[in-house]
Amino acid sequence: MADPWQNAYDFAVQVARAAGAVIRNAGEDEIKVQTKSCAVDLVTQTDERVEKIIIGSLKEQFGNGTHCFIGEESVAEGEPCILTDKPTWIIVPVDGTTNFVHGFPFVAVSIAFAVNKELEFGVVYSCLEDKMYKARKGKGAFCNDEPIKVSDVNDINKSIIISEHGTDRSIEKVTKIFSTMQKILRIPVHGLRGSGTAATNMCLVASGASEAFFEIGIHCWDVAAGAVIVKEAGGLVLDVDGVYAFKSDHMNIK
Ligand SMILES: O=P([O-])([O-])O[C@@H]1[C@H](O)[C@H](O)[C@@H](O)[C@H](O)[C@H]1O
Ligand SMILES: [Mg+2]
């Protein structure tokens, strides 16, 4: 039987690469910072522009009304974030906006695709490193077309753990984050790291550079593409209760 989503997968890779080029070439005025939910939750014109380019290209290719789109910036502007059984694209145009603004060299485009509320594939393009991570359900995970797999280190004392601090600077949240990090460091582990983009963090786990990534309070779109890549590289994606994290009810935000 013909593979129904191969064309969409190939197109997603193409679109992510083109979006990455737009990010790399963004001019000064496009890096001008605005804020979203709080003073450290940043957004730029590039985030909005790249999301429009990605959704525009996908609609042109697949936009006969049967496909749905969930984009980070569209949701920020009031679009619903509801996962139905329809083929749905889940997009982060610029993952690592704070890095992008500061010239910190990890910025990714993340595109996932779900059908019947199941993720079919994920593409993460780490555009400043020019690394294209991709995975299709049941078909393995790749970085620049080379197969990748998770680390085989099973001793946590010999691990590198990745985490992020998020954008909530309330004393309660910051205390919780640092007490968790303190516990992890004291295990002890070899190291704690964070690239500033959740999508790239997941790809670092998928390629075996780190044994685990965790973040408290992450958005569903930040992990959608990375979830397929980690799973196809032989890893696990769990929520805090220890169950598979990418459930449809995590997406359904009005
Ligand atoms: O805002 P953004 O740069 O697209 O995405 C953020 C990054 O992935 C960051 O690493 C993570 O800690 C945040 O939770 C995300 O919201
Ligand atoms: Mg973003």
TrEMBL record:
Highest taxon listed in the record's lineage: Eukaryota
UniProt pathway: Polyol metabolism; myo-inositol biosynthesis; myo-inositol from D-glucose 6-phosphate: step 2/2
InterPro entries listed in its UniProt record: IMPase (IPR033942), Inositol_monoPase_Li-sen (IPR020552), Inositol_monophosphatase-like (IPR000760), Inositol_monophosphatase_CS (IPR020550)
Chain sites annotated for binding Mg(2+): 72, 95, 222
Pfam family, one: Inositol_P
Record family assignment: Belongs to the inositol monophosphatase superfamily.
Protein name: Inositol-1-monophosphatase
